[in-house]
């Protein structure tokens, strides 16, 4: 196996705020508060720096997921979330058409080797429910999310 050696290359760039104060020198942030002419503070930071990451990533089959979504659309043309019932198409019109996320009920992160996944292992959920499902490990189930929604919405006046 060939071993690759990576040499980090950084560009050195000094950044000044609108008052001419040095706020970033190379990779070192001098201050993250930028003072404006009217002396009011504004919270700011620097983002967008390019970094090279080298790691393993588990493959997902995008063609399989598209087929799952297409089959689900035959059952539910509005592609309603299986957890909360939200439909992007109903809420946003044409720009929401065909928008839904496929959730693996067998978490890919937990697989130790390539594993056969069937359509029964996929649930169609909206972005919010998908985020809530993955907000803990192990993930919430669809049934647990439905229960949370029901319980919490009953408390809304």
From TrEMBL:
Residues 81-136 form the HNH domain. It comes from the Bacteria. GO terms for molecular function: endonuclease activity; nucleic acid binding; zinc ion binding. InterPro entries: HNH. This is HNH domain-containing protein. It comes from Paenibacillus lutrae.
């Amino acid at each position: 196996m060939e071993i690759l050696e990576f040499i980090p290359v950084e560009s050195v760039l000094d950044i000044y705020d609108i008052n001419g104060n040095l706020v970033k020198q190379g990779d070192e942030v001098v201050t993250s508060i930028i003072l404006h002419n009217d002396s009011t503070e504004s919270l700011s930071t620097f983002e967008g720096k390019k970094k090279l990451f080298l790691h393993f990533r588990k493959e997902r089959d995008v063609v399989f997921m598209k087929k799952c979504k297409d089959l689900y659309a035959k059952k539910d043309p509005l592609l309603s979330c299986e957890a909360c019932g939200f439909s992007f198409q109903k809420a946003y019109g044409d720009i929401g058409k065909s928008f839904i996320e496929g959730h693996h009920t067998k978490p890919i992160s937990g697989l130790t080797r390539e594993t056969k996944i069937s359509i029964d292992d996929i649930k169609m959920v909206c972005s919010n429910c998908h985020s809530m499902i993955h907000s803990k490990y192990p993930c919430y189930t669809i049934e647990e999310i439905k229960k949370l929604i029901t319980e919490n919405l009953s408390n809304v006046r």
